[in-house]
Design a protein that fits this description.
disordered C terminus
Length: 511
């Protein structure tokens, strides 16, 4: 009885199957009446889809051509590159794409392999799935922009950045902001000049983006000029080049300035003699004799401009002989109606030149009372013996004016500070630029970063692993040297790569 039941079940299972019309193998019924193996030999659903294709790669800007004329930047085995490869395959819309992925190839082989899984209906509605590999050959071809660069006719718009000063600290600061916000990515070329830097662009829109960035990070103004290169009289079209001349305010950090009387009154009655604390999107001023602070934006400056009485190269060294702190409740009486900096401490200071110790002491008032003590070296500007060509300064009453304006404290020799410095900055790429320790402007900029936390908050600072591993022997007197903490530094993950950010500085020329 059990045997008959078993035999009956075998007969019922065989009754549900048919024989393949090609090889005679029992199979489940299907519209094609063929097994999978025979069906694959008869039908190729990948027919019409090319197994080889060509994509074009520009070595100059490292972009791929997306027909007809668009060039896009894609990294290897990225989603963007996969979409570009699939768009090159004709006939892919006639089948159903199930899966697509890259097959590893040697990076320098100029070959990209993509593994595809597709489905399609064949012979009466049977669904067949197939897996195959398409090989893409990478051919080199210059894009339009790089081709124009090689032809020496590569730019349609030029942004010329200038500052009429004898130092480059503002340009070093601007360089770091450009790197942080990647504002230089669309430039075709960067060319340093004696007073600034030139940026070249393929079209006017890219130049305007750079212009908007510059006006948002530094106080400046600009003018635009247009030059007609060629014209078509039949279609009334013109080929023009645009030049944007950007002028940054001619003052810098630690400069001593003389404000016009009208502007000083508008800023809350601040004194005309001020020290520039920093230059960011606005000019930050402090009155060294009262501690009053003010900010001057770009529009206010160009309406009532003022120049620096001295730069960092005109500052002289003074030795602090004695100091007397002014109490906080008396501090407000020296200021006008504006805001007062309670970060700084007013003090009466007696200073003298290093070669005049004991013979000629000078009394002055300073906002650096929280930093100074007898015996310190401080940088100041001699107002009594200066030769300044400034109309605002000439109109001031010299009787009530201090003889010396103290600007900043000197902590140690530059070589000591260079040895103790455990951070580094990235730079734009250009030949002939100097960002070494012998460049005084650059070392002064690094010292400004160490001494002013507000000045460095918008800059990416990276750890210098080589200096961090060295043990630097310093004396007790060097413990006061300000340093940037490790919490403020970033790990530099791209040193050694072919990255345009690891070259020399573009934004400061050799003096």
């Amino acid at each position: 009885m059990e045997y008959m039941e078993t035999g009956g079940s075998d007969e019922s299972s065989l009754a549900c199957k048919i024989l393949c019309c090609q090889c005679g193998t029992p199979i489940e019924p299907n519209p094609a009446n063929m097994c999978v193996a025979c069906l694959r030999t008869q039908v190729d659903i990948s027919e019409g889809i090319p197994k080889q294709a060509v994509i074009y790669f520009c070595k100059g800007c490292e972009r791929y051509l997306q027909p007809p004329e668009q060039w896009i930047k894609c990294s290897l085995e990225s989603r963007e590159l996969l979409g570009l490869c699939l768009a090159k395959l004709k006939g892919l819309n006639r089948v159903r794409l199930i899966d697509a992925g890259f097959v590893w190839t040697e990076p320098h082989s100029k070959r990209i392999k993509v593994k595809l899984t597709i489905q399609a209906e064949v012979l009466g509605g049977a669904v067949l799935q197939q897996v195959f590999i398409v090989e893409f050959v990478v051919n080199g071809q210059f894009c339009t922009d790089c081709h124009r660069v090689e032809a020496k006719d590569f730019w349609k718009a030029n942004v010329q950045v200038r500052q009429k000063t004898d130092h480059k600290k503002t340009f070093y600061y601007l360089e770091q902001l450009i790197l942080k916000h990647k504002a230089h990515e669309s430039t075709l070329g960067i060319k340093p000049t004696h007073e600034g830097i030139d940026f070249f662009y393929a079209n006017e829109g890219q130049a305007k983006k750079m212009l908007d960035f510059l006006t948002s990070v530094v106080p400046c103004r600009y003018q635009v000029s247009k030059t007609v290169i060629s014209q078509d009289i039949h279609s009334n079209t013109y080929n023009c080049k645009f030049t944007y001349s950007v002028e940054i305010v001619p003052v810098c950090k630690d400069c001593v300035v003389c404000l016009p009387p009208k502007l000083a009154h508008q800023l809350g009655g601040i004194g005309q003699i001020c020290v520039v604390q920093r230059v960011s999107s606005t000019i930050h001023l402090i009155d060294p004799f009262s501690g009053q602070i003010a900010e001057v934006n770009s529009n206010t400056y160009w309406r009532t401009p003022f120049n620096a009485l001295s730069g960092t190269k005109q500052l002289a060294e003074y030795v602090v002989m004695d100091i007397e702190i002014i109490r906080d409740h008396e501090k407000r009486t020296f200021a006008g109606q504006g805001a007062v900096s309670f970060k700084h401490v007013l003090a009466d200071v007696w200073v003298c030149r290093p070669n005049e110790i004991g013979t000629n002491e000078i009394h002055t008032r300073t906002h650096l009372g929280h930093l100074l003590k007898p015996g310190d070296i401080v940088m100041g500007y001699d107002l009594a013996n200066c030769n300044v060509n400034d109309d605002n300064f000439d109109k001031m009453n010299r009787e009530n004016m201090a003889d010396v304006v103290l600007v900043k404290k000197m902590y140690a020799d530059k070589s000591v500070r260079n040895r103790r410095r455990k951070f580094k900055l990235r730079h734009l790429d250009a030949d002939g630029m100097d960002v070494t320790s012998i460049n005084r402007d650059y070392t002064d900029f690094l010292e400004d970063l160490e001494e002013d936390p507000a000045f460095r908050q918008n800059i990416n600072i990276y750890k210098d692993e080589r200096k961090a591993a060295l043990a630097v022997e310093v004396g007790d007197a060097d413990d006061e040297i300000p340093q940037i903490t490790l919490q403020e530094m970033l790990d530099d993950l791209h040193i050694g790569d072919e990255n345009p950010l690891t070259g020399a500085s573009v934004l400061a020329t050799q003096q």
